[in-house]
Amino acid sequence: MHPDRQPTWTPxxxxxxQPRQVRRILRLFRPYRGRLAIVGLLVGASxxxxxxxxxxxxxxxxxxxxxGRTGLLSLLAAGMILSAVLTSVFGVLQTLIxxxxxxxxxxxxxxxxxxxxxxMSLAFFTRTRTGEVQSRIANDIGGMQATVTSxxxxxxxxxxxxxxxxxxxxxxDWRLTIVSLLLLPVFVWISRRxxxxxxxxxxxxxxxxxxxxATVTESLSVSGILLGRTMGRSDSLTAGFAEExxxxxxxxxxxxxAGRWRMAVITIVMAAMPAVIYWTAGLALQFGxxxxxxxxxxxxxSLQQGLFxxxxxxxxxxxxxxxxxxxxxxxxxYLDLPIDITERERPVRLDRVKGEVRFEDVxxxxxxxxxxxLDGIDVTVPAGSSLAIVGPTGAGKSTLGxxxxxxxxxxxxRVTLDGVDVRDxxxxxxxxxxxxxxxxxxxxxxxxxxxxxxxKPDATDEELRAAAKAAQIHDHIAALPDGYDTVVGERGHxxxxxxxxxxxxxxxxxxxxPVLILDEATSALDTRTEAAVQEAIDALSANRxxxxxxxxxxxxxxxxxxxxxxxGRVAERGTHQELLEFDGRYAGLVRRDARxxxxxxxxxxxxxxxxxxxxxxx
Length: 618
Known about the structure:
Elements: H1 18-28, H2 33-64, H3 70-118, H4 122-127, H5 130-143, H6 145-172, H7 174-181, H8 184-219, H9 222-230, H10 234-257, H11 260-286, H12 294-335, E1 357-364, E2 374-381, E3 386-390, H13 397-402, E4 412-417, E5 420-421, H14 427-433, E6 434-438, H15 448-453, H16 461-470, H17 474-479, H18 497-511, E7 515-519, H19 527-541, E8 545-549, E9 561-566, E10 569-574, H20 576-582, H21 585-596, H22 600-604
Protein backbone atom coordinates (compact mmCIF):
# COMPACT_ATOMS: atom_id res chain seq x y z
CA MET A 1 0.00 0.00 0.00
CA HIS A 2 1.32 3.43 -0.90
CA PRO A 3 -1.15 6.02 0.46
CA ASP A 4 1.17 8.92 -0.25
CA ARG A 5 2.03 8.08 -3.83
CA GLN A 6 0.51 10.45 -6.40
CA PRO A 7 0.43 10.40 -10.21
CA THR A 8 3.69 11.52 -11.74
CA TRP A 9 2.02 13.96 -14.14
CA THR A 10 0.18 16.76 -12.36
CA PRO A 11 0.72 20.23 -13.83
CA UNK A 12 0.41 23.09 -11.33
CA UNK A 13 -2.73 25.22 -11.54
CA UNK A 14 -2.17 28.58 -13.19
CA UNK A 15 -4.36 31.44 -11.99
CA UNK A 16 -3.57 33.42 -15.15
CA UNK A 17 -4.99 30.56 -17.19
CA GLN A 18 -8.42 30.86 -15.54
CA PRO A 19 -10.12 32.75 -18.42
CA ARG A 20 -9.06 30.04 -20.87
CA GLN A 21 -10.37 27.43 -18.46
CA VAL A 22 -13.74 29.20 -18.23
CA ARG A 23 -13.95 29.34 -22.03
CA ARG A 24 -13.20 25.64 -22.13
CA ILE A 25 -15.99 24.93 -19.66
CA LEU A 26 -18.42 26.96 -21.75
CA ARG A 27 -17.48 24.90 -24.82
CA LEU A 28 -18.81 21.83 -23.03
CA PHE A 29 -22.31 23.31 -23.37
CA ARG A 30 -21.94 24.16 -27.07
CA PRO A 31 -23.71 21.00 -28.37
CA TYR A 32 -26.78 21.98 -26.35
CA ARG A 33 -27.15 25.58 -27.54
CA GLY A 34 -30.73 25.07 -28.69
CA ARG A 35 -31.99 23.80 -25.37
CA LEU A 36 -30.03 26.45 -23.50
CA ALA A 37 -31.66 29.12 -25.69
CA ILE A 38 -35.07 27.81 -24.59
CA VAL A 39 -33.91 27.99 -20.97
CA GLY A 40 -32.83 31.59 -21.56
CA LEU A 41 -36.26 32.49 -22.95
CA LEU A 42 -37.97 30.85 -19.97
CA VAL A 43 -35.66 32.70 -17.57
CA GLY A 44 -36.35 36.03 -19.26
CA ALA A 45 -40.09 35.45 -19.27
CA SER A 46 -40.06 34.40 -15.62
CA UNK A 47 -38.07 37.51 -14.63
CA UNK A 48 -40.42 39.86 -16.46
CA UNK A 49 -43.49 38.23 -14.93
CA UNK A 50 -42.06 38.39 -11.40
CA UNK A 51 -41.04 42.06 -11.80
CA UNK A 52 -44.59 42.95 -12.87
CA UNK A 53 -46.05 41.96 -9.50
CA UNK A 54 -44.77 45.03 -7.53
CA UNK A 55 -46.26 47.36 -10.16
CA UNK A 56 -49.60 45.59 -9.78
CA UNK A 57 -49.24 46.04 -6.02
CA UNK A 58 -48.54 49.77 -6.46
CA UNK A 59 -51.68 50.24 -8.53
CA UNK A 60 -53.65 48.28 -5.94
CA UNK A 61 -52.51 50.50 -3.04
CA UNK A 62 -52.50 53.86 -4.86
CA UNK A 63 -55.56 53.52 -7.12
CA UNK A 64 -57.83 50.47 -6.77
CA UNK A 65 -58.30 50.44 -2.97
CA UNK A 66 -58.33 54.23 -2.25
CA UNK A 67 -60.79 54.92 -5.10
CA GLY A 68 -62.96 51.87 -4.49
CA ARG A 69 -62.56 50.50 -8.02
CA THR A 70 -63.65 46.93 -7.40
CA GLY A 71 -63.29 45.78 -11.02
CA LEU A 72 -59.73 47.06 -11.25
CA LEU A 73 -58.97 45.51 -7.85
CA SER A 74 -60.21 42.10 -9.05
CA LEU A 75 -58.22 42.42 -12.26
CA LEU A 76 -55.04 43.35 -10.39
CA ALA A 77 -55.51 40.48 -7.90
CA ALA A 78 -56.02 38.02 -10.77
CA GLY A 79 -52.85 39.39 -12.38
CA MET A 80 -50.86 38.72 -9.20
CA ILE A 81 -52.17 35.14 -9.04
CA LEU A 82 -51.45 34.58 -12.74
CA SER A 83 -47.93 35.95 -12.22
CA ALA A 84 -47.29 33.40 -9.46
CA VAL A 85 -48.65 30.53 -11.61
CA LEU A 86 -46.57 31.49 -14.67
CA THR A 87 -43.42 31.94 -12.58
CA SER A 88 -43.85 28.44 -11.10
CA VAL A 89 -44.55 26.79 -14.49
CA PHE A 90 -41.59 28.53 -16.11
CA GLY A 91 -39.41 27.44 -13.16
CA VAL A 92 -40.37 23.76 -13.51
CA LEU A 93 -39.71 23.74 -17.28
CA GLN A 94 -36.47 25.61 -16.78
CA THR A 95 -35.31 23.08 -14.15
CA LEU A 96 -36.23 20.11 -16.37
CA ILE A 97 -34.30 21.36 -19.41
CA UNK A 98 -31.28 22.67 -17.51
CA UNK A 99 -30.95 19.46 -15.46
CA UNK A 100 -31.14 17.37 -18.64
CA UNK A 101 -28.44 19.50 -20.30
CA UNK A 102 -26.28 19.35 -17.17
CA UNK A 103 -26.51 15.58 -16.95
CA UNK A 104 -25.62 15.25 -20.65
CA UNK A 105 -22.53 17.40 -20.04
CA UNK A 106 -21.62 15.19 -17.05
CA UNK A 107 -22.03 12.14 -19.28
CA UNK A 108 -19.81 13.71 -21.95
CA UNK A 109 -17.12 14.48 -19.35
CA UNK A 110 -17.16 10.99 -17.85
CA UNK A 111 -17.01 9.39 -21.28
CA UNK A 112 -14.24 11.71 -22.45
CA UNK A 113 -12.07 10.96 -19.40
CA UNK A 114 -12.69 7.20 -19.64
CA UNK A 115 -11.98 7.22 -23.38
CA UNK A 116 -8.78 9.20 -22.83
CA UNK A 117 -7.58 6.74 -20.21
CA UNK A 118 -8.33 3.82 -22.54
CA UNK A 119 -5.86 5.34 -25.00
CA MET A 120 -3.04 5.79 -22.48
CA SER A 121 -0.01 3.53 -22.67
CA LEU A 122 0.65 0.81 -20.12
CA ALA A 123 3.37 3.01 -18.60
CA PHE A 124 0.77 5.49 -17.33
CA PHE A 125 -1.09 2.80 -15.39
CA THR A 126 2.10 1.38 -13.91
CA ARG A 127 2.77 4.82 -12.42
CA THR A 128 -0.76 5.71 -11.30
CA ARG A 129 -2.82 4.22 -8.50
CA THR A 130 -6.13 2.72 -9.59
CA GLY A 131 -7.97 4.55 -6.80
CA GLU A 132 -6.65 7.90 -8.08
CA VAL A 133 -8.11 7.21 -11.53
CA GLN A 134 -11.43 6.11 -10.04
CA SER A 135 -11.56 9.22 -7.84
CA ARG A 136 -11.17 11.55 -10.83
CA ILE A 137 -14.11 9.91 -12.61
CA ALA A 138 -16.36 9.44 -9.57
CA ASN A 139 -15.54 12.12 -6.99
CA ASP A 140 -14.31 14.99 -9.15
CA ILE A 141 -16.92 14.73 -11.88
CA GLY A 142 -19.57 13.88 -9.27
CA GLY A 143 -18.57 16.97 -7.28
CA MET A 144 -19.25 19.13 -10.32
CA GLN A 145 -22.82 17.87 -10.67
CA ALA A 146 -24.51 20.77 -8.88
CA THR A 147 -22.46 23.30 -10.82
CA VAL A 148 -23.02 21.74 -14.22
CA THR A 149 -26.71 20.91 -13.77
CA SER A 150 -27.96 24.07 -12.07
CA UNK A 151 -25.31 26.77 -11.71
CA UNK A 152 -25.35 27.89 -15.34
CA UNK A 153 -29.12 28.26 -15.31
CA UNK A 154 -29.05 29.86 -11.88
CA UNK A 155 -26.46 32.35 -13.11
CA UNK A 156 -28.54 33.39 -16.13
CA UNK A 157 -31.72 33.46 -14.08
CA UNK A 158 -30.25 35.56 -11.30
CA UNK A 159 -28.49 37.99 -13.64
CA UNK A 160 -31.73 38.49 -15.58
CA UNK A 161 -33.72 38.94 -12.38
CA UNK A 162 -31.21 41.41 -10.93
CA UNK A 163 -31.07 43.51 -14.11
CA UNK A 164 -34.85 43.53 -14.56
CA UNK A 165 -35.41 44.38 -10.88
CA UNK A 166 -32.89 47.24 -10.89
CA UNK A 167 -34.52 48.72 -14.00
CA UNK A 168 -37.93 48.49 -12.32
CA UNK A 169 -36.56 50.10 -9.13
CA UNK A 170 -35.11 52.99 -11.14
CA UNK A 171 -38.48 53.43 -12.84
CA UNK A 172 -40.15 53.68 -9.44
CA ASP A 173 -37.61 55.95 -7.70
CA TRP A 174 -33.99 56.39 -8.82
CA ARG A 175 -32.94 58.04 -5.53
CA LEU A 176 -34.02 55.08 -3.41
CA THR A 177 -32.31 52.79 -5.94
CA ILE A 178 -28.96 54.51 -5.39
CA VAL A 179 -29.34 54.04 -1.62
CA SER A 180 -30.12 50.34 -2.16
CA LEU A 181 -27.09 49.65 -4.36
CA LEU A 182 -24.38 51.57 -2.49
CA LEU A 183 -22.86 48.48 -0.87
CA LEU A 184 -23.13 46.15 -3.88
CA PRO A 185 -19.43 46.55 -4.99
CA VAL A 186 -18.29 45.62 -1.49
CA PHE A 187 -20.45 42.50 -1.58
CA VAL A 188 -18.98 41.44 -4.94
CA TRP A 189 -15.42 41.89 -3.62
CA ILE A 190 -16.19 39.81 -0.52
CA SER A 191 -17.71 36.97 -2.57
CA ARG A 192 -14.67 36.82 -4.85
CA ARG A 193 -12.35 36.54 -1.85
CA UNK A 194 -14.49 33.74 -0.43
CA UNK A 195 -14.54 31.96 -3.81
CA UNK A 196 -10.74 31.99 -4.15
CA UNK A 197 -10.38 30.68 -0.60
CA UNK A 198 -12.78 27.80 -1.20
CA UNK A 199 -11.12 26.93 -4.53
CA UNK A 200 -7.79 26.33 -2.80
CA UNK A 201 -9.37 24.21 -0.09
CA UNK A 202 -11.37 22.21 -2.66
CA UNK A 203 -8.19 21.29 -4.54
CA UNK A 204 -6.69 19.90 -1.31
CA UNK A 205 -9.93 18.12 -0.43
CA UNK A 206 -10.18 16.33 -3.80
CA UNK A 207 -6.57 15.17 -3.56
CA UNK A 208 -7.31 13.77 -0.11
CA UNK A 209 -10.45 12.03 -1.40
CA UNK A 210 -8.37 10.51 -4.21
CA UNK A 211 -5.82 9.24 -1.67
CA UNK A 212 -8.62 7.67 0.39
CA UNK A 213 -10.16 6.06 -2.70
CA ALA A 214 -6.78 4.59 -3.66
CA THR A 215 -6.29 3.22 -0.14
CA VAL A 216 -9.74 1.60 -0.17
CA THR A 217 -9.25 0.14 -3.66
CA GLU A 218 -5.93 -1.44 -2.71
CA SER A 219 -6.59 -2.61 0.85
CA LEU A 220 -10.19 -3.83 0.35
CA SER A 221 -9.55 -5.81 -2.83
CA VAL A 222 -9.40 -9.58 -2.44
CA SER A 223 -5.60 -9.49 -2.75
CA GLY A 224 -5.38 -6.63 -0.25
CA ILE A 225 -7.53 -8.41 2.33
CA LEU A 226 -5.47 -11.60 1.95
CA LEU A 227 -2.23 -9.66 2.37
CA GLY A 228 -3.50 -7.67 5.36
CA ARG A 229 -4.85 -10.72 7.20
CA THR A 230 -1.86 -12.98 6.56
CA MET A 231 0.61 -10.25 7.54
CA GLY A 232 -1.37 -9.29 10.65
CA ARG A 233 -1.70 -5.69 9.41
CA SER A 234 -5.50 -5.28 9.53
CA ASP A 235 -5.37 -2.98 12.57
CA SER A 236 -2.51 -0.99 11.06
CA LEU A 237 -4.43 -0.54 7.80
CA THR A 238 -7.51 0.56 9.74
CA ALA A 239 -5.43 3.10 11.69
CA GLY A 240 -3.92 4.41 8.46
CA PHE A 241 -7.37 4.79 6.89
CA ALA A 242 -8.57 6.61 10.03
CA GLU A 243 -5.74 9.12 9.63
CA GLU A 244 -6.68 9.68 5.99
CA UNK A 245 -10.33 10.15 7.00
CA UNK A 246 -9.38 12.56 9.80
CA UNK A 247 -7.52 14.79 7.32
CA UNK A 248 -10.60 14.75 5.09
CA UNK A 249 -12.83 15.79 8.02
CA UNK A 250 -10.66 18.84 8.62
CA UNK A 251 -10.73 19.82 4.95
CA UNK A 252 -14.50 19.33 4.70
CA UNK A 253 -15.09 21.59 7.73
CA UNK A 254 -12.72 24.23 6.36
CA UNK A 255 -14.41 24.05 2.96
CA UNK A 256 -17.88 24.54 4.38
CA UNK A 257 -16.86 27.29 6.81
CA ALA A 258 -14.60 29.24 4.45
CA GLY A 259 -16.02 32.78 4.22
CA ARG A 260 -19.22 31.76 6.03
CA TRP A 261 -19.07 34.74 8.43
CA ARG A 262 -18.43 37.20 5.61
CA MET A 263 -21.37 35.84 3.62
CA ALA A 264 -23.49 36.05 6.79
CA VAL A 265 -22.67 39.78 7.06
CA ILE A 266 -23.87 40.25 3.48
CA THR A 267 -27.13 38.45 4.30
CA ILE A 268 -27.71 40.62 7.41
CA VAL A 269 -27.07 43.85 5.51
CA MET A 270 -29.37 42.84 2.64
CA ALA A 271 -32.11 41.89 5.08
CA ALA A 272 -31.76 45.27 6.83
CA MET A 273 -32.15 47.28 3.60
CA PRO A 274 -35.99 47.56 3.76
CA ALA A 275 -35.61 49.33 7.12
CA VAL A 276 -33.11 51.72 5.50
CA ILE A 277 -35.59 52.48 2.70
CA TYR A 278 -38.41 53.20 5.17
CA TRP A 279 -36.04 55.38 7.19
CA THR A 280 -34.86 57.26 4.06
CA ALA A 281 -38.44 57.81 2.84
CA GLY A 282 -39.51 59.01 6.31
CA LEU A 283 -36.65 61.54 6.53
CA ALA A 284 -37.46 62.85 3.04
CA LEU A 285 -41.08 63.38 4.05
CA GLN A 286 -40.15 65.06 7.36
CA PHE A 287 -37.55 67.47 5.91
CA GLY A 288 -39.42 68.44 2.78
CA UNK A 289 -37.47 66.28 0.34
CA UNK A 290 -38.94 64.45 -2.65
CA UNK A 291 -41.92 62.39 -1.53
CA UNK A 292 -43.05 58.97 -2.67
CA UNK A 293 -46.53 57.52 -2.38
CA UNK A 294 -47.29 54.64 -0.04
CA UNK A 295 -47.79 52.35 -3.02
CA UNK A 296 -44.43 53.38 -4.47
CA UNK A 297 -42.60 52.69 -1.17
CA UNK A 298 -44.30 49.31 -0.67
CA UNK A 299 -43.70 48.34 -4.33
CA UNK A 300 -40.07 49.48 -4.04
CA UNK A 301 -39.50 47.41 -0.88
CA SER A 302 -41.14 44.46 -2.62
CA LEU A 303 -38.74 44.87 -5.56
CA GLN A 304 -35.84 45.24 -3.19
CA GLN A 305 -36.80 42.00 -1.45
CA GLY A 306 -37.07 40.44 -4.91
CA LEU A 307 -33.57 41.77 -5.62
CA PHE A 308 -32.24 40.34 -2.35
CA UNK A 309 -32.83 36.68 -3.23
CA UNK A 310 -31.18 36.62 -6.70
CA UNK A 311 -28.39 38.99 -5.58
CA UNK A 312 -27.38 36.76 -2.66
CA UNK A 313 -27.81 33.70 -4.87
CA UNK A 314 -25.66 35.34 -7.53
CA UNK A 315 -22.89 35.98 -5.02
CA UNK A 316 -23.16 32.38 -3.77
CA UNK A 317 -23.09 31.15 -7.38
CA UNK A 318 -19.87 33.07 -7.93
CA UNK A 319 -18.36 31.31 -4.92
CA UNK A 320 -19.57 27.93 -6.20
CA UNK A 321 -18.09 28.56 -9.64
CA UNK A 322 -14.72 29.42 -8.12
CA UNK A 323 -14.88 26.20 -6.11
CA UNK A 324 -15.83 24.14 -9.16
CA UNK A 325 -12.91 25.51 -11.16
CA UNK A 326 -10.66 23.37 -8.94
CA UNK A 327 -12.63 20.26 -9.93
CA UNK A 328 -12.59 21.18 -13.61
CA UNK A 329 -8.84 21.74 -13.34
CA UNK A 330 -8.35 18.15 -12.12
CA UNK A 331 -10.56 16.74 -14.89
CA UNK A 332 -8.84 18.80 -17.58
CA UNK A 333 -5.49 17.49 -16.31
CA TYR A 334 -6.58 14.00 -17.35
CA LEU A 335 -8.10 15.18 -20.62
CA ASP A 336 -4.80 16.91 -21.42
CA LEU A 337 -2.60 13.92 -20.64
CA PRO A 338 -0.22 13.36 -23.55
CA ILE A 339 -1.05 10.14 -25.40
CA ASP A 340 2.15 8.27 -26.15
CA ILE A 341 0.66 5.58 -28.35
CA THR A 342 -1.50 6.92 -31.17
CA GLU A 343 -2.82 5.67 -34.49
CA ARG A 344 -1.57 7.16 -37.74
CA GLU A 345 -3.90 9.46 -39.68
CA ARG A 346 -3.97 6.85 -42.45
CA PRO A 347 -3.06 3.57 -40.75
CA VAL A 348 -2.34 0.33 -42.59
CA ARG A 349 -5.01 -2.34 -42.32
CA LEU A 350 -4.10 -5.97 -42.92
CA ASP A 351 -7.00 -8.24 -43.82
CA ARG A 352 -4.85 -11.36 -43.46
CA VAL A 353 -1.88 -11.59 -41.11
CA LYS A 354 0.74 -14.31 -41.69
CA GLY A 355 2.55 -13.57 -38.45
CA GLU A 356 6.19 -12.76 -39.21
CA VAL A 357 7.62 -10.60 -36.40
CA ARG A 358 10.87 -8.66 -36.66
CA PHE A 359 12.77 -6.61 -34.10
CA GLU A 360 15.06 -4.28 -36.03
CA ASP A 361 17.73 -2.51 -33.92
CA VAL A 362 15.09 -2.05 -31.19
CA UNK A 363 15.81 0.25 -28.26
CA UNK A 364 13.49 1.19 -25.40
CA UNK A 365 13.55 3.30 -22.24
CA UNK A 366 10.67 4.34 -20.01
CA UNK A 367 11.59 8.03 -20.05
CA UNK A 368 14.25 10.34 -21.46
CA UNK A 369 16.23 10.42 -18.21
CA UNK A 370 16.10 6.70 -17.48
CA UNK A 371 18.66 4.10 -18.49
CA UNK A 372 17.85 1.97 -21.57
CA UNK A 373 15.83 -1.18 -20.90
CA LEU A 374 16.52 -2.60 -24.37
CA ASP A 375 19.27 -1.68 -26.80
CA GLY A 376 20.18 -2.93 -30.28
CA ILE A 377 17.79 -5.90 -30.43
CA ASP A 378 17.76 -7.61 -33.84
CA VAL A 379 15.60 -10.75 -33.97
CA THR A 380 13.43 -12.27 -36.70
CA VAL A 381 10.58 -14.67 -35.90
CA PRO A 382 9.29 -16.32 -39.11
CA ALA A 383 5.53 -16.82 -39.43
CA GLY A 384 4.36 -19.92 -37.58
CA SER A 385 7.64 -20.38 -35.69
CA SER A 386 8.38 -20.06 -31.99
CA LEU A 387 10.82 -17.79 -30.17
CA ALA A 388 11.73 -18.17 -26.50
CA ILE A 389 13.06 -15.14 -24.62
CA VAL A 390 14.99 -16.00 -21.47
CA GLY A 391 17.38 -14.25 -19.14
CA PRO A 392 17.75 -12.98 -15.59
CA THR A 393 15.20 -10.74 -13.86
CA GLY A 394 15.33 -7.19 -15.20
CA ALA A 395 16.85 -8.18 -18.53
CA GLY A 396 13.91 -6.69 -20.47
CA LYS A 397 12.11 -9.88 -21.49
CA SER A 398 8.52 -8.78 -20.80
CA THR A 399 9.17 -5.32 -22.22
CA LEU A 400 10.40 -6.84 -25.50
CA GLY A 401 7.25 -8.94 -25.79
CA UNK A 402 5.00 -5.98 -24.98
CA UNK A 403 6.44 -3.98 -27.90
CA UNK A 404 4.66 -6.25 -30.41
CA UNK A 405 1.05 -5.40 -29.35
CA UNK A 406 2.18 -1.78 -28.70
CA UNK A 407 1.61 -1.84 -24.97
CA UNK A 408 4.78 0.23 -25.20
CA UNK A 409 6.34 1.91 -28.24
CA UNK A 410 9.98 1.56 -29.17
CA UNK A 411 12.22 4.57 -28.58
CA UNK A 412 14.63 3.40 -31.26
CA UNK A 413 14.49 1.03 -34.24
CA ARG A 414 11.21 -0.64 -35.10
CA VAL A 415 9.05 -3.73 -34.63
CA THR A 416 7.35 -5.08 -37.75
CA LEU A 417 4.48 -7.46 -38.37
CA ASP A 418 4.56 -9.00 -41.86
CA GLY A 419 7.01 -6.28 -42.84
CA VAL A 420 4.82 -3.40 -41.62
CA ASP A 421 5.92 -1.25 -38.67
CA VAL A 422 3.42 -1.96 -35.88
CA ARG A 423 3.19 1.82 -35.35
CA ASP A 424 1.75 2.10 -38.88
CA UNK A 425 -0.95 -0.53 -38.31
CA UNK A 426 -4.46 0.40 -37.25
CA UNK A 427 -5.36 -0.61 -33.70
CA UNK A 428 -8.02 -3.08 -34.82
CA UNK A 429 -5.56 -5.01 -37.01
CA UNK A 430 -3.03 -5.17 -34.17
CA UNK A 431 -5.63 -6.30 -31.63
CA UNK A 432 -6.83 -9.07 -33.97
CA UNK A 433 -3.30 -10.15 -34.85
CA UNK A 434 -1.61 -10.32 -31.44
CA UNK A 435 -2.85 -12.18 -28.38
CA UNK A 436 -1.26 -11.95 -24.93
CA UNK A 437 -1.41 -14.52 -22.13
CA UNK A 438 0.38 -13.17 -19.06
CA UNK A 439 1.30 -14.56 -15.68
CA UNK A 440 -1.39 -12.42 -14.03
CA UNK A 441 -4.77 -13.50 -15.39
CA UNK A 442 -7.46 -10.85 -15.14
CA UNK A 443 -11.06 -12.01 -15.00
CA UNK A 444 -14.08 -9.74 -14.63
CA UNK A 445 -16.62 -10.21 -11.83
CA UNK A 446 -19.00 -11.89 -14.28
CA UNK A 447 -19.91 -15.37 -15.50
CA UNK A 448 -17.45 -17.73 -17.18
CA UNK A 449 -19.29 -17.27 -20.48
CA UNK A 450 -19.17 -13.48 -20.24
CA UNK A 451 -15.44 -13.58 -19.50
CA UNK A 452 -14.81 -15.78 -22.52
CA UNK A 453 -17.03 -13.68 -24.79
CA UNK A 454 -14.98 -10.61 -23.93
CA UNK A 455 -12.63 -11.88 -26.64
CA LYS A 456 -15.43 -12.54 -29.13
CA PRO A 457 -18.82 -11.03 -28.17
CA ASP A 458 -20.73 -12.94 -30.87
CA ALA A 459 -19.27 -16.36 -30.01
CA THR A 460 -21.78 -19.20 -29.90
CA ASP A 461 -22.12 -21.61 -26.98
CA GLU A 462 -20.52 -24.30 -29.12
CA GLU A 463 -17.51 -22.07 -29.81
CA LEU A 464 -17.16 -21.42 -26.07
CA ARG A 465 -17.16 -25.14 -25.33
CA ALA A 466 -14.67 -25.87 -28.13
CA ALA A 467 -12.26 -23.21 -26.83
CA ALA A 468 -12.63 -24.49 -23.25
CA LYS A 469 -11.94 -28.08 -24.37
CA ALA A 470 -8.80 -26.98 -26.21
CA ALA A 471 -7.68 -25.18 -23.03
CA GLN A 472 -8.30 -28.29 -20.88
CA ILE A 473 -10.90 -26.46 -18.72
CA HIS A 474 -14.27 -27.56 -20.16
CA ASP A 475 -14.74 -30.56 -17.83
CA HIS A 476 -14.15 -28.41 -14.75
CA ILE A 477 -16.62 -25.75 -15.93
CA ALA A 478 -19.25 -28.35 -16.84
CA ALA A 479 -18.97 -29.86 -13.34
CA LEU A 480 -19.86 -26.54 -11.68
CA PRO A 481 -23.52 -26.16 -10.49
CA ASP A 482 -24.14 -23.28 -12.91
CA GLY A 483 -21.73 -24.41 -15.61
CA TYR A 484 -20.73 -21.59 -17.94
CA ASP A 485 -23.07 -19.24 -16.03
CA THR A 486 -20.92 -19.53 -12.89
CA VAL A 487 -19.77 -16.13 -11.62
CA VAL A 488 -15.97 -16.22 -11.28
CA GLY A 489 -15.79 -13.71 -8.38
CA GLU A 490 -13.60 -10.65 -7.95
CA ARG A 491 -10.58 -11.14 -10.24
CA GLY A 492 -11.52 -14.81 -10.57
CA HIS A 493 -10.70 -15.71 -6.96
CA UNK A 494 -13.25 -18.54 -7.00
CA UNK A 495 -10.87 -20.39 -9.35
CA UNK A 496 -7.35 -21.65 -8.74
CA UNK A 497 -4.32 -20.15 -10.47
CA UNK A 498 -4.15 -22.97 -13.01
CA UNK A 499 -7.88 -22.78 -13.73
CA UNK A 500 -7.68 -19.02 -14.28
CA UNK A 501 -4.74 -19.49 -16.64
CA UNK A 502 -6.69 -22.06 -18.66
CA UNK A 503 -9.68 -19.70 -18.81
CA UNK A 504 -7.35 -17.01 -20.14
CA UNK A 505 -6.00 -19.43 -22.72
CA UNK A 506 -9.54 -20.41 -23.75
CA UNK A 507 -10.35 -16.72 -24.14
CA UNK A 508 -7.33 -16.26 -26.40
CA UNK A 509 -8.16 -19.40 -28.42
CA UNK A 510 -11.60 -17.92 -29.00
CA UNK A 511 -10.01 -14.77 -30.42
CA UNK A 512 -7.69 -16.88 -32.61
CA UNK A 513 -4.75 -14.47 -33.08
CA PRO A 514 -1.97 -15.45 -35.54
CA VAL A 515 0.71 -14.06 -33.16
CA LEU A 516 0.85 -15.11 -29.52
CA ILE A 517 2.80 -13.55 -26.62
CA LEU A 518 3.18 -15.88 -23.60
CA ASP A 519 4.54 -13.84 -20.69
CA GLU A 520 5.54 -16.16 -17.83
CA ALA A 521 2.23 -17.96 -18.38
CA THR A 522 3.14 -20.90 -16.12
CA SER A 523 5.77 -19.52 -13.74
CA ALA A 524 3.36 -19.11 -10.80
CA LEU A 525 1.99 -22.66 -11.04
CA ASP A 526 2.98 -25.91 -9.37
CA THR A 527 4.47 -28.64 -11.53
CA ARG A 528 1.29 -30.72 -11.91
CA THR A 529 -0.87 -27.69 -12.75
CA GLU A 530 1.84 -26.43 -15.08
CA ALA A 531 1.69 -29.67 -17.05
CA ALA A 532 -2.08 -29.25 -17.59
CA VAL A 533 -1.69 -25.59 -18.55
CA GLN A 534 1.23 -26.44 -20.84
CA GLU A 535 -1.01 -28.84 -22.76
CA ALA A 536 -3.48 -25.98 -23.26
CA ILE A 537 -0.64 -23.68 -24.34
CA ASP A 538 0.60 -26.24 -26.84
CA ALA A 539 -2.88 -26.40 -28.36
CA LEU A 540 -3.03 -22.60 -28.45
CA SER A 541 0.45 -22.24 -29.99
CA ALA A 542 -0.09 -24.68 -32.85
CA ASN A 543 0.42 -23.01 -36.25
CA ARG A 544 0.93 -19.59 -34.64
CA UNK A 545 3.91 -17.31 -34.30
CA UNK A 546 4.72 -17.66 -30.62
CA UNK A 547 6.95 -15.52 -28.40
CA UNK A 548 7.42 -17.19 -25.02
CA UNK A 549 8.91 -15.26 -22.09
CA UNK A 550 9.94 -17.72 -19.40
CA UNK A 551 12.13 -18.44 -16.39
CA UNK A 552 11.38 -22.14 -16.38
CA UNK A 553 13.59 -23.31 -19.22
CA UNK A 554 11.89 -26.70 -19.35
CA UNK A 555 8.95 -24.97 -21.07
CA UNK A 556 11.02 -23.52 -23.94
CA UNK A 557 13.36 -26.33 -24.93
CA UNK A 558 11.32 -27.11 -28.03
CA UNK A 559 11.33 -23.52 -29.34
CA UNK A 560 12.61 -22.98 -32.88
CA UNK A 561 15.02 -20.39 -31.53
CA UNK A 562 15.97 -19.12 -28.09
CA UNK A 563 17.24 -15.61 -27.34
CA UNK A 564 19.09 -14.92 -24.10
CA UNK A 565 18.78 -11.30 -22.93
CA UNK A 566 21.21 -9.73 -20.51
CA UNK A 567 21.02 -6.04 -19.49
CA GLY A 568 18.73 -5.29 -22.42
CA ARG A 569 20.96 -6.83 -25.11
CA VAL A 570 20.99 -10.16 -26.94
CA ALA A 571 23.74 -12.18 -25.26
CA GLU A 572 23.13 -15.49 -27.04
CA ARG A 573 20.80 -17.02 -29.59
CA GLY A 574 20.19 -20.49 -31.07
CA THR A 575 18.29 -23.70 -30.42
CA HIS A 576 18.29 -25.43 -27.08
CA GLN A 577 20.93 -27.93 -28.18
CA GLU A 578 23.12 -25.30 -29.85
CA LEU A 579 23.14 -23.13 -26.75
CA LEU A 580 23.96 -26.09 -24.51
CA GLU A 581 26.92 -26.92 -26.73
CA PHE A 582 28.03 -23.28 -26.65
CA ASP A 583 28.15 -23.60 -22.83
CA GLY A 584 27.46 -19.93 -22.14
CA ARG A 585 24.80 -18.06 -20.18
CA TYR A 586 21.95 -20.31 -21.34
CA ALA A 587 23.79 -23.45 -20.32
CA GLY A 588 24.42 -21.85 -16.94
CA LEU A 589 20.71 -21.11 -16.54
CA VAL A 590 19.84 -24.72 -17.42
CA ARG A 591 22.30 -26.02 -14.82
CA ARG A 592 20.80 -23.63 -12.27
CA ASP A 593 17.31 -24.98 -13.05
CA ALA A 594 18.51 -28.52 -12.60
CA ARG A 595 20.12 -27.60 -9.28
CA UNK A 596 17.17 -25.61 -7.85
CA UNK A 597 14.41 -27.88 -9.12
CA UNK A 598 10.99 -27.03 -10.65
CA UNK A 599 10.17 -24.27 -8.19
CA UNK A 600 12.95 -21.98 -9.45
CA UNK A 601 10.59 -20.03 -11.68
CA UNK A 602 8.61 -18.95 -8.66
CA UNK A 603 11.74 -18.03 -6.79
CA UNK A 604 13.04 -15.95 -9.67
CA UNK A 605 10.02 -13.84 -10.25
CA UNK A 606 7.10 -13.00 -8.02
CA UNK A 607 3.74 -12.47 -9.73
CA UNK A 608 3.11 -8.85 -10.58
CA UNK A 609 0.89 -7.26 -7.93
CA UNK A 610 -1.95 -5.64 -9.86
CA UNK A 611 -2.91 -3.56 -6.86
CA UNK A 612 0.55 -2.00 -6.62
CA UNK A 613 0.77 -1.68 -10.43
CA UNK A 614 4.53 -1.77 -10.75
CA UNK A 615 6.36 -1.56 -14.04
CA UNK A 616 7.29 -5.04 -15.36
CA UNK A 617 10.78 -5.91 -14.30
CA UNK A 618 11.43 -8.72 -16.77
